[in-house]
């Protein structure tokens, strides 16, 4: 199985995101000429059940066999590495990338499942520096998920990563001809992505515990704000140097609930980009999923819905 499927199909996706002691599940459709639509979003607590038993229960209740299904790897289950694109024919690309990764992984490259994401170059530049993202996960991790879903009789078509789920959401916000930076937070830290023309150009993990943002300790919140701001400033400076042909329109802050206001204000005062807060209803029809009305609930389903927004991919 590939980490990323590049099939161009019209069937809805069902996405699984393991988190918070259970699984978030979402389905999204893309009606022609209209906003994408969330048809279902639900959380299924494990309550001590083994993953396969939980998946089997979900699969039966939601008729998962009617969908193309995808699941998200957790941040610790894979590595996303930037590499120079090798000058080889397309059918030799994976082999060449695997060779380049052999000294970048903390385990044997033969034990890795690898896929690649292209980062489009500036077609008007005299010298084109061509980068790619390589995604590497241990074979054991991929096989374990395949077995779990297979035993639960859920047709797992794709194993995906949060960076691509966030890319799918960010792409909905892009003004024509300009890029968007998006920052979201999970309990284990933040994720910054920059997209342009629907493509992922930059991804950075930010080591800042979300508990600090929601803490009642003012000093902890201030430290969180400062750390996030510094990481963003460094990442945006790097992006401007690397991709000077892309103009960013704004920074969009993913759903965080009440804690978002202070961080948003701090970022707006210290960054050159306008800062906005993400709301599903601005770009996605959530009329059939009223549970998504609150920012706290939107934060829980943020990645699952992003993964369910899968669309046509560029074939490498």
What can you tell me about this protein's structure?
The protein has 316 residues and is an alpha/beta fold. The protein has helices at residues 51-62, 93-101, 139-151, 162-171, 210-213, 218-242, 260-270, 280-283, 295-308, and strands at 13-19, 22-29, 37-45, 68-72, 78-84, 112-118, 131-138, 156-160, 179-186, 189-196, 199-206, 248-253, 275-277. Strands 3-2-1-4-8 form a five-stranded mixed sheet, sandwiched between helices. Helix 4 (162-171) crosses helix 9 (295-308) and helix 6 (218-242) packs across helix 7. It is globular, with a radius of gyration of 19 Å. The protein starts with 12 loop residues before the first strand and ends in an 8-residue tail after the last helix.
Short description:
With 316 residues, the protein is of the alpha/beta class. 32% of the residues lie in helices and 28% in strands.
What is the topological layout?
Blueprint: E1 13-19, E2 22-29, E3 37-45, H1 51-62, E4 68-72, E5 78-84, H2 93-101, E6 112-118, E7 131-138, H3 139-151, E8 156-160, H4 162-171, E9 179-186, E10 189-196, E11 199-206, H5 210-213, H6 218-242, E12 248-253, H7 260-270, E13 275-277, H8 280-283, H9 295-308
Parallel strand pairs: 1-4, 4-8, 9-12, 12-13
Antiparallel strand pairs: 1-2, 2-3, 5-7, 6-7, 9-10, 10-11
From the alpha-carbon coordinates, what is the Rg to the nearest angstrom?
19 Å
Shape: globular
Mean pLDDT: 91
Give the neighbour order of strands across the main sheet. Answer: 3-2-1-4-8
Distance between the termini: 16 Å
Q: Largest sheet, if any? A: 5 strands, mixed
The helix-and-strand class reads: alpha/beta
